[in-house]
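Bumping my old thread because nobody answered last time. Still need a sequence for this structure:
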């Protein structure tokens, strides 16, 4: 039987002590950027609506009942449009960033792109940051990414910051928010987070590695800095996903497994239905349980990791969600609303 999920009202500082040992990591998914950016099913809906003729459009709820994954649905759009990978990435880029681009002025959009794409914060001016502050207020204020970014920077200054961040987003909104709040503390030109999108990146020992596990989709019209391109790391279509599934020693797999084996990981904005992620977590947990047994230690329900999730409507749903991740070494942390993500992370770190 799974350990009962923890609750925002009663949760203890479960991450405080681990900072003295191997520390903790944060793993974020696309849900942390909602509602500023579309979730995966909304993205599928927009791709079909904006790029198919009226007699070809399918209601997204009908499509979802066919039980295909979002990756399979996105792959279907590419198949239907007969687009090359390169051209389809351009189309995806337009759709993913459209909500932000259409809400901003041309000058604001240029500022957003500059901050989103930069590797060197020294090129970001005070005026750029002031403009970005307004963008946050209009676009990102209520996102989990924004709420958690504030807490992560507070935690860094308190000496309990994460040892790494794993991102399964295909954009860098959370990273830009982290840089913004770090800048507010008087570190406008110092780079705290080491943006890692491939295996050839040399990590700096005095920075927190930020792993783009599913790549970063480029913003059309802007070129990524040489040496940081990772188009082959994008995981958006089913082809991408299955290629990753067939490679046990991919850069994504080794990065994820290394972090989850050595640290406690807090998951937020992910559904934990991703088969690759579940496979990796299952391996790690099974290995740990086998080592407990081999060493004569009686441990039936070891949980190392935490999943922040909105509380479902019924007790039955809570029970079965908890049971569905127990064998992965994951314990639920229930919140009432998504605007509580920052508060619960603070409590987990003992910052409240």
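Sorry it took so long. Here it is:
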């Amino acid at each position: 039987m799974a350990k009962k999920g923890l609750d925002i009202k009663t949760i203890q500082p479960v991450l405080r002590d681990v900072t003295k040992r191997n520390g903790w990591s944060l793993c974020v998914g696309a849900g942390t950027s909602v509602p500023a950016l579309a979730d995966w099913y909304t993205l599928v809906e927009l791709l079909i609506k904006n790029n198919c003729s009226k007699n070809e459009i399918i209601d997204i709820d009908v499509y979802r009942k066919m039980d295909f994954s979002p990756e399979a649905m996105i792959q279907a759009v590419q198949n239907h449009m007969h687009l090359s990978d390169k051209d389809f990435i351009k189309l995806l880029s337009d759709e993913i960033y459209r909500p932000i681009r259409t809400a901003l002025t041309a000058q604001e959009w240029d500022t957003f792109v500059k901050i989103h794409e930069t590797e060197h914060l020294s090129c970001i001016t005070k005026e750029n940051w002031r403009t970005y502050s307004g963008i946050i207020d209009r676009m990102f204020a209520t996102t989990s990414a924004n709420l958690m970014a504030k807490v992560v920077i507070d935690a860094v200054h308190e000496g309990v910051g994460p040892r790494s961040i794993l991102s399964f987003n295909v954009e860098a909104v959370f990273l830009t928010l982290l840089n913004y709040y770090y800048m507010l503390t008087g570190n406008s030109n110092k780079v705290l987070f080491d943006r890692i999108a491939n295996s050839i990146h040399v990590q700096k020992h005095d920075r927190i590695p930020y792993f783009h596990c599913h790549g970063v989709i480029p913003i059309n019209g802007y070129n990524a800095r040489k040496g940081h391109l990772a188009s082959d790391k994008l995981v958006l279509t089913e082809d991408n996903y299955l290629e990753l599934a067939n490679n046990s020693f991919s850069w994504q797999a080794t990065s994820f497994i290394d972090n989850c084996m050595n640290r406690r990981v807090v998951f937020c904005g992910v559904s934990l239905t991703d088969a690759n992620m579940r496979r990796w977590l299952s391996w790690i947990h099974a290995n740990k349980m086998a080592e407990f047994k081999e060493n004569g230690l009686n441990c039936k329900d070891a949980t190392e990791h935490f999943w922040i999730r909105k509380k479902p409507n019924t007790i039955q749903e809570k029970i079965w969600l908890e049971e569905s991740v127990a064998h992965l070494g994951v314990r639920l942390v229930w919140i009432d609303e998504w605007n509580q993500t920052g508060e619960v992370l603070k409590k987990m770190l003992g910052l409240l």
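The domain at 6-37+140-349 is CATH 3.40.50 (Rossmann fold). Let me know if any region looks off to you.
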